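Researcher: Last one for today. Full complex below.
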Amino acid sequence: MQLSRDELLHAYRQMRTIRAFEDRVHEEFSAGNIPGFVHLYAGEEASAVGFCMHLGDRDHIASTHRGHGHCIAKGCDVRAMMAEIFGKKEGLCGGKGGSMHIADLEKGMMGANGIVGGGPPLVCGAALTAKTLGTGGVAIAFVGDGGSNQGTTLESYNLAKIWNLPAIFVIEDNGYAESTASSWAVAGSQVGRAAGFGMPAHEVDGHDFFAVHAVAREVIERARQGGGPSLVHVRFTRYYGHFEGDAMTYRGKDEVPRIAAERDCLKLFRQRVIEAALLEPAELDRIDREVAQLIDRATVEAKAAPMPSEADLLTDVYVSYH
Amino acid sequence: MPKKTYRQAINEALRQEMERDPRVILMGEDVAGGMGSPGEDDAWGGPLGVTKGLMPRFGRERVLDTPISESAFIGAAVGAAATGLRPVAELMFVDFFGVCFDQIFNQAAKFRYMFGGKAVTPVVIRTMYGAGFRAASQHSQCLYPIFTHIPGLKVALPSNAYEAKGLLIQAIRDDDPVIFFEHKAMYDEEADVPDDPYTIPFGEANVTREGEDVTVIAMGRMVNFANQVADKLAKEKIGVTVVDIRTTSPLDTETILETASETGRVVVVDEAHPRCSMASDIAALVAQERFADLKAPVKMVTAPHAPVPFSPALEDLYIPSPAKIEAAVREVLAFKG
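Model: Here's the assembly. Have a good evening.
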C-alpha cells in the first residue's frame, strides 16, 4: 500500500528528529554536559519509525537501553526527553529515570530498560491486557541482538504463542552486543528460532524504511486480527558505540563511514521519495531545519531547567505507603 | 462466625475480588491444572488446591495456566498490571524467585519511581514459603527479607486464615506491587473468617497477646508459636505481649517501639535465616530507638545460617520452635545488667 504525502513527511520528520536528537546527545555527552550512561540509536531510525507509524496510544511498546528512538517514534515529548537526559525536574520522568528509563505510559511507551531482555515478558503482559479487555491493541517488544539470547525473550516467544497474544518481537540486530558480534553470539537464526515456536517471522533490511514499514504493517495487522505473535529480524547499523565513550576498537576499518555513505536510512529515504517525485527536496530541507531548531531549543531549555530538589528524593517510591 | 481454613480464606478472597472487579485475573503454573490434558479440567487448582474451583467459575480467560516459565509469566503479570489489569500471579514456591527476580525487583518495584510517579503496577505475587514439609533446601525457604529489602515492593505475611483473607483483599486492591507469602504448613489451619469481604490495612501490626514482662515480635507462622508460649507462661504469671507485624514492608515501627518500651525486654522471632533478616532489622530498630528503655539485650530466635535440611530429625531442629521461643523469653527475663 502506498504511503500518503502526510505519512511520508511524518516518517521523514520522525527519523530526522531521532537522528538530530542522538547527534546532539552525542555532542553534549562528549562535552561532559550529560551524566551517566547513554546508548544512542543513530543509524537505526527506520526500525522504530517503521513500526511505530502503525501504532496508536492503545498500543504498547517496550524498549531497550537504546531507547531514545523508540520513545520519539511512539510520541514521547522530545523536549521533556532531553530534560530527562540532563537529569532535570521537568524531564519526562522528573529526572529520576534518565536515558535508560524514559517512559510515558499514556503514550503506550512502557519504558526504555536497563536490563537486557527485560521487555519481552512485559510486552506479553501488555498484549494480555489488550486481549483481556478487548481493546484491539497490540504490543511490541524491541529487543537487541544481545537481548535475543536472554531466556526471558525465548520464554516470552513460547508464552505469546500458546496464549495467542497480539505481541510482536522485533529483534534489532545492529551487529554487536556491546563489542561481541551477533554473527558469533547467536546460534541458529532469529527467523529459525521463531519457526521453532511456530511463529511467523521475517528478516528485513533495517536501513530501508519502506521495507520495515511494509513488514511492520503485515505483522501488526496479523496481531490485531487475532492471528497471534510474530517476529521480525531487523538488520542495520549503529553509528556510535555501545555506550557513549566506547572507542569501538572491535569494529571493522571504515565500517561506519562506508555504511553511513551507502546505506543510511535517511539518505535512502530521501533518494527514494525524490526519485519517485513523491516529495520535493525543499520540503525535506525544511523539515531538517525545523527539527534542528526543535532539538536546539530542547537542549538549551534542558540545560537551563532546574534540577530536582531534596523534596523529590523520596516521592513516588509507592503509590501510598504507611 | 464461620470457621475456615487458611486455604479456604485465600480462595474466598480471590473469588470475591474476581467477582467485584473484572480486571482481576489469576495466572500461574497449574492454578487450574489439566490444560491441554486428556483428563479432568481444573485438575489441581494449584499444587495444594488453593485456587480450586476458580477456573470453572471465571473461565480460562481469567484463570490462566502457564508453562513453567516464571520469568515470562511473572513479567507478563507485571506488564499487564502496568497497562490496566490487576493480576494475581502465583509463584508456586518462593524458592523459585531466583529465575524471575529481575521482573519483580528491577521492573515492577521501580516503575513508579523511575517513570516519575506516572506508573501504577497493581500486581500481587502469591507465593508459598516456609519449612516443615520435609521439602528440603529448594522448597522450604522464607526469603521475605530479600523482598522487604527492595523499595517499591510491599510484603505481607498472614499468620492465620482471618489475616489471610483480609490481607489478600487489601493486596489486590492496593495500587503497589505486593508479594503475598503463604506458609505451606498453615493451609489446613482454621480460624473465624467472616463471609463478607474485608481488608486489613498494611503497616498496622496486630497485638495478639498483652503482657507486662516481655514483648515478642513475630511474623507469619511464628506468631502462632509465640501465642502458644504467651498462653503457657501466663499460667506462671509471666506476662508476654505478642506483636504480629503482618507486613514486613511497610513495617509498623510505632507499635514495635511502643510495645518494646512497655516491657523493656524484647524477643524477635523470625523463621528466616538470621543474617539480614526481619529479626536483625527489628532488633537494630529497637536498639537504635529505645536503647534507654531496654532492660536486657534484644534476643533473636531464628533458623540457623544453613539451608533447610530434608531429614525430619534435622528439620525439626532447624525451625524456630515454641520451646526455643520460651527459652528466649526466660533468658531476657533473667538478664541482670
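The longest strand of chain B covers residues 86-93. Chain B has a mean pLDDT of 97.
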